[in-house]
């Protein structure tokens, strides 16, 4: 049985080493470059706030399609989110999270991702980025 963590705990849960999640510390000066590297290195990256319900919906949609996205969670307030996402462009630059990057390009937030999925364009985009094989 797993041990419950208190809400005020600053420990990332689940641990980043086992879940593919990465919690970004907004105090670090190299956070923006780290996120930029993650965008370039991963076919699909979900950038969001820690514990955000919309990020959970984005992850569930992508997992339902057979994509295992890299997830980067920002742990901080609005000022920190704006500072961290300033160099990323688009809605992410304005601090609007979640932000979904596919193939190194910003697709948008939850609303844009669902619109692309409903229009039937999401699967070809994921295949082109190398996130889907079939």
From TrEMBL:
SUPFAM superfamilies: Thioredoxin-like (SSF52833). Keywords: Cytoplasm, Redox-active center. One of its GO terms (cellular component) is cytoplasm. Residues 8-20 have a biased composition (Polar residues). The keyword Cytoplasm applies. Coiled coil: none annotated. It holds the Pfam family Glutaredoxin. It comes from the Eukaryota. It is found in: Cytoplasm. Its main location: cytoplasm. InterPro entries: GlrX-like_pln_2, Glutaredoxin, Thioredoxin-like_sf. Gene3D superfamilies: Glutaredoxin (3.40.30.10). Residues 44-107 form the Glutaredoxin domain. Residues 1-26 are annotated as: Disordered. NCBIfam families: GlrX-like_plant (TIGR02189). Belongs to the glutaredoxin family. CC-type subfamily. This is Monothiol glutaredoxin-S9. It comes from Acorus gramineus (Dwarf sweet flag).
């Amino acid at each position: 049985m797993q041990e419950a963590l208190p809400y005020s705990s600053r420990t990332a849960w689940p641990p980043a080493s086992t879940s593919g999640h990465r919690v970004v510390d907004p105090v670090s000066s190299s956070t923006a470059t780290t996120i930029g590297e993650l965008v370039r290195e991963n076919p699909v990256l979900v950038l969001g706030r820690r514990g955000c319900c919309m990020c959970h919906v984005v992850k569930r949609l992508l997992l339902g399609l057979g994509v295992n996205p890299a997830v980067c969670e920002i742990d901080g307030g609005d000022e920190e989110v704006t500072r961290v996402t300033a160099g990323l462009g688009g809605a992410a630059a304005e601090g609007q999270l979640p932000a979904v990057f596919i193939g190194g390009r910003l697709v948008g937030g939850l609303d844009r991702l669902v619109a692309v999925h409903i229009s039937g364009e999401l699967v070809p985009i994921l295949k082109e980025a190398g996130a889907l094989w079939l």
